[in-house]
Design brief:
This protein has one domain. It is built from 3 helices and 7 strands; from the N terminus they run H-E-E-E-E-E-H-E-E-H.
Length: about 190
């Protein structure tokens, strides 16, 4: 019995040290990948090439809640804003960016930085068919989620993903909760 406890303790200590060393060695690369994913998501919202040398710049708006990024072109003209939101989907946390035009009147896009939804169901949120529904919707009105009928953009409607209602509800609900705060913050920034 003592021998088994000693062996198991040794295996646990070795495994813990190996995991700690692997994390320590890869933590910088993990952070670089997170920054690259954020930049790619920001570029997707503003429909630009993230690797272009003369492309837009994205800066974090100080003191913003929710977190907000401002996109500027090379001349310093504000292209728009992207707010970072977290929602709790069916499979876990969903980190997304919702883009607003420079006047904070319209949604210009939505992009997902991280998500662990079920592939083929909730994971379909990353598909263009779902994301494109948000473009052009009114930022001053609540979004409406519809099921089994085509959405009417004039009524600020988004069609839920079949089989992923929980995920769809979480995304639209979180956007509705925080979009008003973001619009107010943008309006204060412009003054």
């Amino acid at each position: 019995m003592k021998q088994m406890i000693i062996v198991l303790t040794g295996v646990m200590v070795f495994s813990g040290l190996a995991l700690a060393a692997a994390y320590s060695g890869l933590s910088e690369r993990i952070e670089e990948n997170r920054i690259a994913a954020l930049n790619a998501s920001l570029a997707a919202i503003f429909d630009v090439d993230p690797d272009a040398a003369d492309g837009p710049s994205f800066d974090l708006v100080d003191g913003s809640d929710p977190l907000m990024y401002r996109g500027k072109d090379t001349d310093g003209t504000v292209l728009g804003y992207a707010i970072r939101l977290q929602a709790q989907g069916y499979g876990g946390a969903i980190s997304m960016l919702v883009g607003l035009d420079a006047d904070a009147e319209r949604i210009i896009g939505i992009s997902f930085v991280e998500q662990v939804e079920t592939p083929g169901l909730g994971g379909r949120i990353t598909e263009e068919v779902f994301r494109s529904q948000f473009r052009g919707l009114d930022a001053d009105r609540a979004l409406e989620l519809v099921r089994n009928v085509p959405p009417d953009p004039d009524r600020n409607e988004v069609q839920a993903i079949t089989g992923a209602t929980i995920t769809s509800i979480a995304i639209v609900g979180r956007i509705n909760e925080r979009l008003g705060d973001a619009v107010e913050l943008i309006e204060r920034q412009e003054r």
